[in-house]
Amino acid sequence: MNLTVENLTKEFKGKKVLDIPHYAVRSGEIIGLVGNNGAGKTTLFRVILDLLKADTGHVVISGVIDGREVSIDTSKNEAWKAYTGAFVDTGFLIDYLTPEEYFRFLAKVTGLTDSNLNERLKFFDQFMNGEVMGSNTLIRNLSMGNQQKVGIIGAMLHHPQLLILDEPFNFLDPTSQVSMKYLLEKYGKEYGSTIIVSSHNLTHTLDICSRITLLENGNVIKDYGRDYALLTSEIEGYFRSNVNI
Amino acid sequence: MKIISYFIIAFWAVYLMVLGVSFHSFFKDSSLEAFDWIDGGLLWFLVLDFVSRFMMQDTPAQNVKQYKLLNISSRFLFHVFLLRIGLQFYNLFWAFFFVPFGFLSVPQFYGFGGFAGFLLGWWLLFVLNSYWYLFWRTLMNRNLWWGFCPLLFYLLCLYLGFFYDNENQWLFDGSIHLMRGFCHWKAWCWLLLIGLITVMYAANYYLQKVAVYMEISRMEHVGTVKTRNMKFLDRYGVVGEYMKLEIKSMMRNLVIRKLFINGGLCMLMLCGLFSFSDIYDELPFMRVFICVYCFSCLGVMTLTTIMCAEGNYLDGLMVHKETILSLLKAKYYFQCAVLLIPVLFLLMPIGEGKMPVLTMLACAFFTSGVVFPFMFQLAVYNDSSIHLNKKLTRSGRNTKVQMLMSAAAMFLPMLIMYVLVEFFGETCAAIVMLTMGVIGTILHPLWLNNIYQRFMKRRYQNMDAFRNSR
Prior knowledge:
Chain A is of the alpha/beta class.
């Protein structure tokens, strides 16, 4: 799926938190959004997902679905929801369910059968590392890392063509972080999906993303291609410049 | 929740006053004086009072916890909280009954001094009962099985005192004797009562001291639950999935469970009033009135906070298509299914010929077709998340709209029924209510869709507020 943002602005209490004249993501790209706290990453995700109203501008999701060209303004039509998966924070989790119940609920809502669900969950076996399912524990009683895993798996279960993950490496132990990187790369390759992740972990982001977008105070400061050496030096240089050493 | 509590308090206050006045005339022609009958049933009053305290009274151990880190002596804190319990307004609540009743029946025999003794005696008995309740409630907080002790005590007393030997009504006579002692200001009565209060106060003081440390060191019990698939709901597709959520939310979230338990208790109490008493048999308005509340009280109490629980995970729901419409449908069907409980309970008065089937059907459909659509409007305006597993008093306070709507849901049916029953009779009222209810029920896809459309128009505002109140 392609994603296009036009003339997007958002203010909170008189302060502009988002101001993006134009931003486009092409189908199949893995985008890393990086920036300091308050840069506008989560706000941008919420606006894209129609969870927050933009003051001006719009977000359009387009692409070929079932052989048909579609182009949808996310605030005007709900059809895009069938092709999109997202996990932004624990506000996405129904925490009084067990992970199994939560996955089953999402499967039903997105039209998957039980056998489909079981098949798809196998894809996440390594990522779950035997810690998420089978313990008959409510999601709210899981560790933050395992809650994060449940949310990420829930977002990917129905094989969305557009996947949005906010800080997916947060709370994960080192093994799970590596597993997460592998999972996203594999998912992107296998399903050709567009993936947008935000992260404070530059190493992981640089490892998996085909493009890095740098945000600051709601503005897109720079868009980098996948020249690893350049990316590393430029992005690290940018964040280093904010610190007096 | 608060407005419902105020309404219930106001309702019972008026109700008790009316009962107080009518009881006086009710016992006018009997061999004993009216106040003797009431005094003889002392234990029944104490049982009722004990049960009602489950909804009204906290334990100090829960309250003292937050002051423990402050530089205030624990001894002082416990005394303050225990005295507060003794002096709480609720111990005076029965005065709504005893003041009018006593005023009409006591002074002519014992003068106003006797009337004052009568009132003071009853008040101190309820003070004693509050400490008695507190003692068992604190133990029950540790283990629910402690609840059987007062239950057994009351059952045993009532059985031995009233049912075991019809010739020897020792409990009835003893209670009359005690209460007459209060009216005569007999020292032994006061000493006995004040002595019992002191003993219970001391017992509570030591128990609370232990309980507060147990409360502080209490770990949240992270148990395992059985993963439930509830396959019987699978046939209803996505709506069935949301119905499963409703059931699981009720079973696993303290706040939601408490709402249902309180609503369920109200429902059972009203049903019981109908089934096991004949007070309302001659009053068609009261009959229809109580019947409607048998059906609607649970719905009104739980739907006041409609969407507030979902506010905790609304973002996750909103990234799926038309999910809110399915959610609303599931909530409606679930509430309609719950209406079967009062239907079962009301079969008894119907079987006894106390109430026509038509009235019951009218009340059931009036609830599903008029009261529910009214309460569901709150789905558009509710925008404050409630903490699912914490005490309701610490979260999800009612907004003005919630208060207005729940008050209207309580009072409007009463007004409609009063007009219909008084001017057109019970049968005609039932037919009108049935018609309104059936129309509302059949049209539920339409009004639910309307609520969904309006919710979607307000979605940004609501989601923002839900997020901020998490």
